[in-house]
Amino acid sequence: KLIKYFATSKLQSRLGEFGQYCPVSLAKKGELVDCSVTSSLQSAAEFRGHYYKMASQAELNEFLNAPELYVPPLAPHPLPSPDMLPKKLTMAEVKALFPKKAEMQGYCPVTYLDGKQRYEALVPGTIEYAVEYQDKLYIFESEEKLQKFMRLPEKYWNQKLPHKLPPIKEPVLLTALPLTGYLEQGIATALIKAMNEVGCLKPKFPFLSVKKTALLFVAYHLKAYNPRSSEYVRKKYKRKLEQFIDHCDLIPYLGTKMTRKYKEPQNRPIDFDHKLQMFLCLKDVDPTSG
Predict the structure, then answer these.
(1) Domain map of the chain by residue range?
(2) Mean pLDDT computed over every residue of the chain
């Protein structure tokens, strides 16, 4: 028997009974390992005038040690006919099959079986990872799951779904949600932080209601800490928020420093007159202007 490495140009015309599938993987594990995905001939060999490609160096070594065990008549598993081999599809090829529907209502057969066919293992596939097998269409959760199916289609193809299925999840644009849902999905974390801070500070802007003060505080806080805004915008609103808080602090300050009896200017706190004047000037000022 003669085993040797060979030139690339001769490969197609002299492929053995297994085409570009690894005979060792098929014989030992019953796996269909398609070696055509690589043009490398590093793991290929010739035996009895035919060429064979192996999945890796390990399989090549096994083939070289006893090649007759992996080819007819001693090979335990023949390669299925071309129409019985799984075929990976592009997204365009999947769309061209319309109106053919994916088997298992689009759930990933590999995830389901590997998950012991539990309810939580019902995970939808995507047409990005699709295979045609026995004239049926299957879609998978990931490339890894697709490759598992390609190797062992007989293991995964013929499954029955349970009667109870998860609700269908349709992708929803945030802007299509009702207001409450939009807030929950879009700005929940930022809103919680802002409301927590306003709850701790309990600010009251001069001449504004508590409700309006709280609303303005939350608005400034959201603007100041919006990760999608530019650094310039965030800094701008952080300054506005700080100024807003300073103005709110005037009320508790004046409340503690102001007495019922008149005090001469020299007996007042050094910044009292300035802060009192600032407070009075805010009477007709819109805090959102400027």
Answers:
(1) 3-79, 83-156, 174-281
(2) 88
